[in-house]
Amino acid sequence: MSETTVYPFSTATGTDVRVRFCPSPTGTPHVGLVRTAMFNWAYARHTGGTFIFRIEDTDPARDSEESYLQLKDALRWLKLDWDEGVDAGGPHGPYRQSERYDIYRDVVEKLKASGHIYESFATGEEIEARNVALGRDPKQGYDNFERDLTEEQRAAYRAEGRAPALRLKVPDTEISFDDLVRGEITFPAGSFSDFVVVRPNGHPLYPFVNPVDDALMGVTHVLRGEDLLSSTPRQIALYQALIEIGLTTFIPRFGHLPYVMGDKNKKLSKRDPESNLFLHRERGFIPEGLLNYLSLLGWSLSKDQDVFSVDELVAAFDVEDVNPNPARFDLKKAESINGDHIRLLEPADFAARIVPYLVSAGVVDLPLGDAREAVLTAAAPLIQERIALLGEAPGMLGFLFVTSEALVHEADALASLPKNAADILAASVTTLESIPESEWTHDRVHEALTSALIEGLGLKPRVAFGPLRVAISGRKVSPPLFESMEILGRSESLARLVLLAGSPAVVGSPAVVEGPAA
């Protein structure tokens, strides 16, 4: 490699932009990993470029098919569609590294022939011993001393039964690049030594296969986590070699995205519950809400707008606007933004999205049937303005799908009943019995109970309607009371009031029961 050669970086813009998301299939998808995927996807969609989804599965000890399927599930759930890659195909396949070993062997041979990589027989213990003998820190690492082994020396090592690793001969010059997020970064000459690209068993390593795949797939912009920044000069050194053998004509632009931090400003790890993408899905995050929040971890649409659509994200996103400072994952803010997006859904869409949560909680079975479908259609709008997570729907709506005999009264709800709950319930029953079935609407019910309890008995609304809420829903917090009573109907509503009025919790039993009296 010439020390004076200028190696060009990509100048691609617009539709020529090619980015990739290339995770290793290990474990459950992490929100930081998903944010990386989203930023790559958003940049491709913003520029009109190409988004490639590639799998780096060259570590059989850690990789799993389950994780691979989860990665695909995650991107599809979030609607981060890809233009080339696994399942989609494309001109640069295969898109799983485990299926590309013949390609890597061919590139290795070309780099060996050109003198860019060489055989290295030294063991870790020998490298440490050499450092000690030369008065250096034993952990200083490799010092490139095998660059110029003679054929006789290599033959002698082989005669001992040693199999060589292959190392890249790195340039003895500084390596600089203009990071799209962090600006100009320079690694001085000697910052790192010749590094292993192929193990003695012939297995190519990540620092080799990752840039080779990027080069062969024409990747123009590498947007990845800050934790990989230290490996970038090694990748650039390999790119320079790949340019010299004609495998590519440019080095991609790099942009290193900020860390996602958890509690106490520690990097969010896979052990932290909030890092688990599917846990958020199980709790009831919707793709629009989660993508919106994750995009705020290092980027913003504007100073005064935290809630925006995916289309608005795509229209405005530029990787050069990403903030290099670490971003903290704030679960409460994430839930709040998710709630904002829930409220933006069309009512029918919202109702459809909560069905899986109702089914999972055992509230309903599929198919719903006409009667339950009607209850869901009427009830869903009552909670759409009140929940931040779809997973809250079963607790809020479950009482509407059971009979009075099966309704469970929560302990804290029973404990909240005032001493005069029996009188309130009795007065309510008397009042409501006068309303015919044909007039049973939430407005009519509200009007009648207001007249009887607030105007007639002089009660405050909270005291007057609290026992009714517990009787109807079994909870202290529920959807709007009178609308719920309209959905349940006259007969079921009256039955619930009578049932609670006669329960031990109301008539004076010292025991707090969870459920209506037998």
TrEMBL record:
Annotated ATP binding sites: 270
Pfam families in UniProt: Anticodon_2, tRNA-synt_1c
EC identifiers of the protein: 6.1.1.17
Subcellular location: Cytoplasm
InterPro entries: aa-tRNA-synth_I_cd-bd, aa-tRNA-synth_I_codon-bd_sub2, aa_tRNA-synth_I_cd-bd_sf, Glu-tRNA-ligase_bac/mito, Glu-tRNA-synth_I_codon-bd_sub1, Glu/Gln-tRNA-synth, Glu/Gln-tRNA-synth_Ib_cat-dom, GluQ/Sye
Annotated Aminoacyl-tRNA synthetase class I anticodon-binding domain residues: 350-497
Homology family: Belongs to the class-I aminoacyl-tRNA synthetase family. Glutamate--tRNA ligase type 1 subfamily.
PANTHER family to which the protein is assigned, alphabetical: GLUTAMATE--TRNA LIGASE, GLUTAMATE--TRNA LIGASE, MITOCHONDRIAL-RELATED
Function: Catalyzes the attachment of glutamate to tRNA(Glu) in a two-step reaction: glutamate is first activated by ATP to form Glu-AMP and then transferred to the acceptor end of tRNA(Glu).
Protein name: Glutamate--tRNA ligase
Organism annotation: Cryobacterium algoricola
